[in-house]
Amino acid sequence: MGHQVALSFEDGVTKVIKVGDYETVMDAAYKARINIPSDCRDGACGTCKTFCDSGSFDPGDFIDDAMTEEELEKGYLLTCQAVPESDLALQIPATSESAKTSAITFTSTLIELDKHSESTISFSLEVQNREALAFLPGQYVNIKVPGTDAERSYSFSNGPDVEKASFMVRITPQGAMSEYLRDRAAVGDTIEFTGPYGSFFLRDPKRPLLLLAGGTGLAPLLAILEKLSQNPPATPIHLIYGVSREADIVGLDWLRAYEAKLPNFTWDYIASEPGTSAPHTGYVTQIIEPTHLNDGDVDVYLCGPPPMVNAVSKWLDSENIQPANFYFERFAPKESTGGDAETGAPAPAEKIQAEGDTISRTEAVSSLETGRLDFRKEDSFAQLDARMGLELAVSELLLGRLSEEQLRQFRRLAEATTRSVSAGTVQDPEEFARTNEEFHEYLFVVCDNPTLLESYRRLDVHAQMAATFEAGTRIFERVTQDHLDIVDAFERHDKARVRELITGHAQAAKETMAGAIDAKTADH
User: Fold this and answer.
1) pLDDT for res 460
2) What is the pTM of this model?
3) Does one domain contain both 235 and 141?
4) Which end of the chain is less packed: N or C, by CB atoms within 10 Å?
5) How far is CA 228 from CA 56, 224, 236, 397, in A?
6) Where is the domain boundary, 167, 197, 227?
């Protein structure tokens, strides 16, 4: 029968492949014409090392130069050797473009239109080439609004094994999709969408689940419930649904239906406006009970507007609760989507072309944000490994090709990082995170390769350092000297030395981040 393996690329694209019994991930990926990073294919080089976010596997044979036993224990695998023992979710340190794959554009027909209330409409599509639409419950697609050039991002409200594709939309006065659905939509309309995208998706449930929805953020959680109902876990699942007004209360019959499908499923809902039919008045955090949090041994999935995501995060901090995992999907700010308060719009092509060197990582695909609110050491290690791989690649392109002025600027950036570090500690965390990022980014800025620059800017190393480092954080002694030595090696055209410095720097950076994360956890 085999297993499904989700390959999540750095640019937000996730591909799902089927891996047969006794088949390696890499072999299955190549059959699917997805060229994930590889070199030796014998477990000897480490080029295909990938972090496993969810699931179990047989690691196969490998040598320490390719992957250590410690890395294996942390969740890493070699795709050329690993054979899945369950469904897997893997973080591939490459872009979908470099893997010769991409999100697919699908053509579909509108077959259902359900106007729940003045504020919410759901619709369903019959998708051409449906067998090619593989997605994970919780993911979203970019839908082209018929009759316009606008695109909006919506999460599936159905599970991946349901034939039709369903979505739920909040209706707003100026919303591009809102106006279409409210005023012009008719069964039989042709609708195109591209995807899937996003890292907000169900992982293998190993502990209790707490699902939190704000408004139409219920949609991806319905998809998650649908998937869970196919093989109900033994652990509890509790969902809390928060809305503003009476008109926003929709989908209760769907939730009641899952009570029969999921023996351990419970749910509740609350409205912030007094006088509604909801059993509670206020916000979702007011009806989260200690049993739902299981002393922190819980996976939280939250989808809603930014204030809700931020409020839940702050509330957990105030309660000294650190969930095992906290996955989120955060709606875009209203002003960034032409009035759509609960959707994300991909950046227009002309904006990417004009602002490609400054546009955020998420805006290029969508202004929806998805991810893990709290990151673990493994996440940081994966990011640093990915940065190392990209730096080795860009160094190959640029060694011997930098002008004198570019080398001088490279040195100025290296020297700037020395000002905020002293005696092995970070003196000014914000300044160090900024200058360190400017140094590491510089080669990608001058390499005249948009793909490499985009890949680098999709990394979260800078954000993770900024979130973790504090005044007095211990950092490896040679951090700033490494920067200066890399510039020296570039000036001498010393390829071997550049590679040695970049790989050594990455390993030391991982040790620093591990210590910083441990210290921050202890403080909490």
Assistant:
1) 65
2) 0.67
3) no
4) N
5) 18, 6, 11, 47
6) 197
